């Protein structure tokens, strides 16, 4: 039996996931947790499960806060409506990342992935799983941005470029630019490399919005909408940039 825990603050979502998991005879649900505070207390006073299904955004914070306070060897399958937390999730023992609404086949696939690392019912190899995740990288398709007290979902396909300014990374859309919680290095790891390319230390651009490319005296890119007149491709990136253009 796989001792399993659910972390979810929305009761209907928790009940639905519990029903879905009840169809897997090898899953033994040991508890359901609704908040960061409850999670920290539960892990401090109970034997840890082997597998955790966890939402990310909880009423009193992010579920990441639990695992940054409590060390666990359990593997985590995140269940969330947003995919902007992918990179951080995979740094915290995550083996999969399921977007809501969860599909039966995706849930089954995630459980089978977990079981594949437990041939003898042992605890699995964290580094081996992380290597698998790198090969099967999830690309970022949506970003959650904050505007005052409001949240907005921006599709990455709507972003002409990401740029760094005063230590903050912004994403540029036709409407405006929005601050994000990412670094450009993190974005390089999770954006679709067929669409996005880092031309220099400050900019990652989207090929769909390239308006013009000047080759003299330096390679400079003009986008349909951007925060600068032209974006210069760094010398060391010119060859890779041309290869990327041909690949697209």
Automatic annotation (TrEMBL):
<dbReference type="InterPro" id="IPR007492">
    <property type="entry name" value="LytTR_DNA-bd_dom"/>
</dbReference>
<feature type="domain" description="HTH LytTR-type">
    <location>
        <begin position="143"/>
        <end position="247"/>
    </location>
</feature>
<feature type="domain" description="Response regulatory">
    <location>
        <begin position="3"/>
        <end position="115"/>
    </location>
</feature>
<dbReference type="GO" id="GO:0003677">
    <property type="term" value="F:DNA binding"/>
</dbReference>
<dbReference type="InterPro" id="IPR011006">
    <property type="entry name" value="CheY-like_superfamily"/>
</dbReference>
<dbReference type="Pfam" id="PF04397">
    <property type="entry name" value="LytTR"/>
</dbReference>
<dbReference type="Pfam" id="PF00072">
    <property type="entry name" value="Response_reg"/>
</dbReference>
<keyword id="KW-0597">Phosphoprotein</keyword>
<dbReference type="InterPro" id="IPR001789">
    <property type="entry name" value="Sig_transdc_resp-reg_receiver"/>
</dbReference>
<keyword id="KW-0238">DNA-binding</keyword>
<feature type="modified residue" description="4-aspartylphosphate">
    <location>
        <position position="55"/>
    </location>
</feature>
<dbReference type="InterPro" id="IPR046947">
    <property type="entry name" value="LytR-like"/>
</dbReference>
<protein>
    <submittedName>
        <fullName>LytTR family DNA-binding domain-containing protein</fullName>
    </submittedName>
</protein>
